[in-house]
Amino acid sequence: MPASGGCACCPGKHLFDGGHTSVAGMEAAARLHRVTLFGPLRPSTSSQHRAKDGFGRENFVIDFDRREATCPNGQVSGNWRDLPVAESTSVVVKFDARQCGRCPQRVACTPGPFRSLYFPTHRLHELQAKNRADQQDTDWRRLYGLRSGAEGTIEEFVDRHRGRRCRYRGLAKTHVQHVLTALAINVERLSLQRAVCDVVPRLLSLERVAQAYRG
Questions:
Q1: Pairing assessment for the beta strands 79-82 and 68-70 based on DSSP bridges
Q2: How far is CA 80 from CA 40, 74, 200, in A?
Q3: E strands along the chain, which residues?
Q4: Which among 80, 120, 161, 168 counts the fewest CB atoms within 10 Å?
């Protein structure tokens, strides 16, 4: 599906590899090129998320208008700071050690004397939350599953047909090798379908005999 603006050859939706997705890249592609990058974002790297225990960032209420965060125990942060980068993509919030020190759930929240949170700016935070929620949807998984076909073809070309090395020098001869290798892959796939094609006519013939017998 082509994009409605920008380069005519740009797709409207691009199934992106999960190892290269970022919320900042998704926002920039949509804003600058009107292309929707469709791929899974990396999960949280916090120690709580890795251990699947304790309070993760998703358990905190973040208020961008008031520039404060509220912890699961009701404590409100007093230190909100945008990281000094050209285009601010991250925010750091710190709770006071006096707040965390008297909290009965501090062990489930942080191993240190106080808790710090790192998260994207407002619009990127909303985009990140939406993407991670969409990943749980069956339709999202079905659509992204289309990428596995492309990945499988690349893997077959690279590993089974030694596509990483060229036998000849020059772009023209390299192109010929790629075309011939692609033809070989197609012939190989057609040969695997031959057994299915042989079975179907036999089933149709048996069905015609059965219909004649019944008639």
A1: unpaired
A2: 28, 17, 68
A3: 13-15, 36-38, 61-63, 68-70, 79-82, 91-94, 116-119
A4: 168
